[in-house]
Amino acid sequence: MKQQDSTGMANGANPGAPAAEEHITLSQAAKLAPGRPSSNCVWRWCREGVKAASGTRVRLKHVRFGSRIYTTRQWLNDFGLALAEADAAHFDRDEQSPAPEPSRRTSKRSRLASRSSAADEARRRHLEAERELEEAGL
Fold first, then answer.
1. pTM for the whole structure
2. Beta strands in 9-136 (DSSP E)
3. Number of domains observed in the structure of the chain
4. C-alpha dist (Å) from residue 130 to 20, 109, 123, 127, 137
5. Residues of the domain holding 113
6. How far is residue 94's CA from residue 92's CA, in Å, rounded to a whole number?
7. Do residues 89 and 118 share a domain?
8. Does residue 55 sit in helix, strand or coil?
9. How confident is the model at residue 106 (pLDDT cuts 50, 70, 90)?
10. Do 55 and 110 belong to one domain?
């Protein structure tokens, strides 16, 4: 019976796998990442990923050894590049698509103006009705 490791390789070294000394903890990754996110944030990048502008999720590659989670400097760099590429692809697509038609919704200012003109119209009709009632002697 063949045994497989966590990468799906059968009893052999994974040629693309990083050496054990290349692995860093999520705390170390947090110190290396731009903006100095917390180690909890780096964990969320692994588990949930980051939602790119296109709506796709980009996740930080990681491995688990026992109860510890590790990543590598290369995977951290690849994560940043993948996120930037996903955003760039989304914005490039938006630039190539035709401009959206203007919305039929009115601005707040025009809604307020139409409300005030409607109120003026109601006030005018009310005064006209009062005048008609006075003329009729009521």
1. 0.55
2. 23-25, 50-51, 57-58, 63-65, 68-72
3. 2
4. 91, 32, 11, 5, 11
5. 106-138
6. 5
7. no
8. coil
9. low
10. no
